[in-house]
Write a structure and sequence with these properties.
With 315 residues, the chain is of the alpha/beta class. It is 43% helix and 15% strand. The chain has a 6-stranded parallel β-sheet, sandwiched between helices. Strands 6-8-10 form a 3-stranded mixed β-sheet. It has a two-stranded parallel sheet with strand order 7-11. The chain is globular and about 60 Å long.
């Protein structure tokens, strides 16, 4: 354990979720033993009184705020109000109450969805205010982006130490494979696996397959988040990514091949594509706190597919 983590008491909101669980694992690997993962049934982070009680009871040195109401394109279209309110209110209250309580540092996990729809590729952090986010996930993206403004404003006025990270799309074992709310990689894995098991002649996918995405293995993301928690103390936003861009058509073919599905892929062009391209400029993370992703995309996909096969019985 480095000196920074010695004796640290850390709250990881959302630490029981997919990405948060990897951050908890990474903290434990650093030797941190005092980790609090608040459960929604005990602490509703939309309620100021619950946040105040959490901070008083645990008295943390550092908070990593990963709790979020999230989902894929379909879920975002169905719940724009819920996604805006939950993410805005949780973050604003948590930052404000942490400042009032004298917490040493808060790490806010933002989202690549905060970027404008037509951001030049690769997305540089300085472009984040150059337009409106892609419509299907704009309420979620804007709510998260508002926390960047709060982080910077509180540092300027109060000297409060908070940082803002922008991870790209994450994937890996333990992801959400519920087709109603999952993101693209787990959704594709589940669809192709089911199609193979049932000998379905085709798999129908949303959009036309032309958009591109960048994906970051969740274990790598956790390493970046913990590194930034330790070493980064500025309010400039920082991307966390792999800098590997793949077209959705190619992603679908890759996953189908890894699973061994031999049927036809059909694209339902009546469904939305989402943002046209996503690829991050990841230089700032390496310059500021030495982060670079290590897991190759194929290696990460294989681990994710193997986990799903081992854990999908009866689903």
């Amino acid at each position: 354990m480095t000196d920074f983590w010695t004796g640290k008491r850390v709250i990881v909101t959302g630490g029981a979720g997919f990405a948060g669980s990897y951050v908890v694992d990474e903290l434990k690997a650093k030797g941190v033993t005092d980790i609090c993962v608040p459960r929604k049934k005990d602490y509703d982070l939309r309620e100021v009184s619950d946040i105040q009680r959490l901070l008083k009871e645990f008295n943390p040195n550092l908070i990593i705020h990963m709790a979020a109401t999230v989902g894929g394109i379909g879920a975002n279209r169905l719940h724009p109000g819920e996604y805006f309110y939950d993410n805005m209110v949780m973050g604003v209250h948590l930052l404000h109450e942490s400042h009032k309580a004298g917490i040493e540092k808060v790490v806010v996990i933002g989202t690549v969805c905060a970027y404008p729809k037509f951001t030049p590729v690769p997305f540089n952090e300085d472009s984040i205010w150059d337009g409106y986010p892609e419509e299907t996930n704009a309420p979620y993206g804007v709510a998260k982006k508002a926390l960047l403004v709060q982080s910077q404003a509180y540092r300027d006025e109060y000297g409060f130490n908070s940082i803002f990270l922008l991870p790209t799309n994450l994937y890996g074992p333990r992801d959400n494979f519920d087709l109603e709310s999952s993101h693209v990689i787990p959704a594709l894995i589940r669809k192709f696996n089911t199609a193979k098991e049932t000998n379905a002649p085709e798999v129908v996918l949303w959009g036309d397959g032309t958009p591109t995405r960048e994906f970051l293995y969740a274990g790598d993301a956790a390493e970046g988040i913990v590194l930034a928690s330790e070493k980064y103390n500025e309010s400039l936003p920082v991307n966390l990514g792999s800098s590997f861009e793949v077209q959705i058509k190619d992603l679908a073919t890759m996953i189908g091949n890894l699973i061994g599905y031999e049927g036809k892929i059909v694209w339902d062009t009546s469904k939305p594509n989402g943002q046209p391209r996503r690829k991050l400029d990841v230089r700032r993370a390496e310059e500021k706190f030495g982060f670079r992703s290590r897991t190759t995309f194929e290696e990460g996909l294989r681990k994710t597919i193997d986990w799903w096969k081992a854990n999908s019985a009866g689903k």
